[in-house]
Amino acid sequence: MNIGIPKEWNDPRVALTPPTIKKIKELGVEVLVEKDAGIASSFSDADFAEVAKVVDRKDVLAAEVIISINPLPVADMKNLAPDTLVISQFKPFFDDTIITQLKNMKLRAFSLDMIPRTTLAQSMDVLSSMASVAGYKAVLVAANHLPRYFPMMITAAGSIRPAKVLILGAGVAGLQAIATARRLGAQVEASDTRLAAKEEVESLGAKFVMVEGAADDSGAGGYAVQQSEDFLRRQREEVQNRAAKADVIITTAQVRGRKAPILLPKDTLDKMQPGSVVVDLAASTGGNCEMTKDREIVKYNGITIVGDSDLAATMPQDASTLFANNLVNFLKLFIKEGQLSLNMEDEIIKGAYITGE
């Protein structure tokens, strides 16, 4: 059996890296990598040639299993042989027509974003690993736009107070953002609908902002859940009080399959100080900030608003490495001695296999 790794058409990352391909080959498969697939993530064709076959795109797309970070263009998928297994992030919660399209093209598909977010599947969770990268980079982006220091500085020319950072959403991205902002010397507060996040936030040295009465999200797999209008109103009021004093706000709250909740409406932005920065990691699903535009930097009343849900792709080498490690652990579930062995009784396989009956 062979596995094809195409060059991403809209992303600098690559789905498998040379070190991880070594592990894949131990499963008894051959790996075909498209020429220049890893160039943007600092993996050369020579690196890949030591562990895989570096070939043209046509040969990659003829493989029995094709793995990509983002779905192949429709034109490519239409040319795949029937019964080809495609593995990518199809996001069926946001586009439920994709499953029908795949079935009509007679393709089998695993959607990596549908892997259950459980302890058992933690080592395969690409959403969490990419969120960790995004949370780290969000702080660096904010620091780059902020017209002042993050840490307290005491110099002969005077003292500078530390920046105040507010993190909205203490999931994987939020926790990494907290840790990074703290390392840079900022004073950090964080808010989350989950009371269970309080201990994690405080363990990283941040202050937890409590808002009572949140709906339980213990079964939401790391996403936020839809909250009552009363809770959202009180949350906005509390956020507004904190935001007026914040230099940086990083938002991470997304509701699976729905538009992201607005946590920073215009009236909250109007109370923020000029020079403040908002980095909105929920931009692709509408944004937590009312003025967010996806993949754009917006200026509003002296505030810089960065809308980007794909910050992991701006650190392509390490992001590719983490993504590839997740893939290795996932592939080990159903590739045995060079053959596919799809056990649909396995909750991870069943959850991610979106073209099943």
Give your account of this protein's structure.
This protein is of the alpha/beta class and 357 residues long. It contains twelve helices and 17 strands. The chain has helices at residues 18-25, 45-49, 57-60, 74-78, 97-104, 126-145, 172-183, 197-203, 229-243, 266-269, 316-334, 347-352, and strands at 2-5, 30-34, 53-55, 65-67, 85-88, 108-111, 153-155, 158-160, 164-168, 187-191, 207-209, 248-251, 277-280, 296-300, 303-307, 335-336, 339-340. It has a seven-stranded mixed sheet with strand order 11-10-9-12-13-15-14, with helices on both faces. Strands 3-2-1-4-5-6 form a six-stranded parallel sheet. The longest helix is centred in the middle third of the chain and has 20 residues, at 126-145. The chain is elongated.
Quick structural overview:
It is built from 12 helices and 17 strands. By secondary structure, the protein is of the alpha/beta class.
Structural class: alpha/beta
The biggest sheet amounts to: 7 strands, mixed
Beta-strand residue percentage = 15-25%
SSE arrangement, N to C? EHEHEHEHEHEHEEEHEHEHEHEEEHEEH
- Globular, elongated, flat, extended or rod-shaped: what is the shape? elongated
Mean pLDDT reading = 93
Question: From the 3D coordinates, which CATH architecture of the largest domain would you assign?
Answer: 3-Layer(aba) Sandwich
By CATH, the superfamily of the largest domain comes out as NAD(P)-binding Rossmann-like Domain
CATH class of the largest domain: Alpha Beta
The percentage helix is: 25-40%
| Spatial strand order of the main sheet | 11-10-9-12-13-15-14
Oligomer: single chain
Total count of domains: 2
Tally of DSSP helical segments: 12
CATH topology of the largest domain: Rossmann fold
* Uncertain parts: none
End-to-end separation: 25 Å
Total E-strand runs = 17
Radius of gyration from CA coordinates: 22 Å
